[in-house]
């Protein structure tokens, strides 16, 4: 299976919309997707860069072998090394146990809960990966 990184924002955003209902692209967003055998199987969109923080949204096709070391390195090097942020923030509905398990396995830590903010009436969990906690690539403190 051939795999390639995709940096086309429109193409990755179109994929994200198929995986994340209600996904909206914000101005200034950036993207890294993964194409396998001609089809995008994973996407990461970054938005809300403010210097110390950037928001990260992730979507993937289950079971399509998308979580490669190369892709992980690209997805964490961009915010920490290119943008120079100190932290990456993401949010997950508390009811989405698969996404929560995935984020926690990557090393994201729960930072806050927004009570009743999820579409299903449940909580939204804010997760954070700090630069010093990142285990992917050569990320080092500024």
TrEMBL record:
Boundaries of every N-acetyltransferase domain copy: 1-132
A GO molecular-function descriptor: acyltransferase activity, transferring groups other than amino-acyl groups
InterPro entries: Acyl_CoA_acyltransferase, GNAT_dom
Coiled-coil positions: none
Record protein name field: N-acetyltransferase domain-containing protein
